[in-house]
Amino acid sequence: MFMDSLAYIGSRAPVYLEVLLQGAGVTVMITAGSFLMAVFIGLTLAILKTYRLSIVNALINVYVELFRGIPALTLLFICYFGLTYVGTRLNPLPAAIIGLGLSGGAYCTEIFRSGISALHHGQREAAAAVGMKPFMTMRYIILPQALRITLPPLGNYAVGLIKDTAVASAVAAPEILFRARNLTTETFDTAFIYLLVACLYFCMTFPIARWVDHLEKKKASQS
Questions:
Q1: How many helices (H) and strands (E) does the chain have?
Q2: According to the model, what pLDDT value does residue 125 have?
Q3: CB 102 within 8 A of CB 80
Q4: How far is residue 71's CA from residue 189's CA, in Å, rounded to a whole number?
Q5: Domains in the chain: how many in total?
Q6: In Å, how far from its chain's centre is CA 135?
Q7: Domain limits at 65?
Q8: Sign of the CA dihedral 129, 134, 138, 140?
Q9: Which of 55, 148, 187, 212 has the most CB atoms around it within 10 Å of its CB?
Q10: Domain CATH code at residue 132
Q11: How many other CB atoms are found less than 10 A from the CB of residue 125?
Q12: How far apart are CA 132 and CA 130, in angstroms?
């Protein structure tokens, strides 16, 4: 009986893996799209906060607190179902990217703000003393250093984002979990299919996690 089960699993594994790898490709697309969107939002808002404009800072704070307090799944439902009330219907993939990107933008804003704040204010004063404009100071002095500081937390965010893409299955985005759910409905090989899903998630997140560990050890050795 045991050998028969192994033989059955061995015969079905390539079929399951092919379907799940297609879902993995969609997971990577959602991760990449929402990560780029979150980084763009976060970096832009963090830079704007450095200019200390009270109204702008208040609006940014509202965005950060609001989108950090709303579950990502709720944002996906709003993007996918809620926009139909204003005459817009998004496909599952862009809805997932926008929902996760807006959620991640709030976190990335705080990541970049912390990185910029970690730099000594004297660097700005020194740049102003040699005649550099604020934009040039930010571009050539502040940002390069801040980005190095923020790489580890951004890597951790990317690891979490890969796993968070699982919620996209709720709006029928054909990522790994959506494909796995369909396979289990058809075959009832639930345990084995979800074991493959876990292995695929691990294969995607482990290299990034190791890279983050390397950056943190390198940073600790330099401090």
A1: 9, 0
A2: 72
A3: no
A4: 31
A5: 1
A6: 28
A7: 2-222
A8: negative
A9: 212
A10: 1.10.3720.10
A11: 10
A12: 6
Q: Is the distance from CB of 106 to CB of 64 less than 8 angstroms? A: yes
pLDDT the model gives residue 9:
58
**93 with 30: CB under 8 angstroms?**
yes
In one-letter notation, the amino acid at residue 93 is: L
CA 44 centroid distance within chain: 16
Residue 38: count of CB within 10 angstroms of its CB: 26
Segment-wise mean pLDDT, segments of 10 residues, the chain, 223 residues: 52 80 93 96 92 89 93 90 82 92 94 86 73 77 84 91 90 87 86 90 92 78 63
User: CA 59 to CA 219: how far, in whole Å?
Assistant: 34
Distance CA 220, CA 196 (A): 36
Per-residue pLDDT at 174:
83
Phi, psi of 156 (to 5 degrees): -65, -40
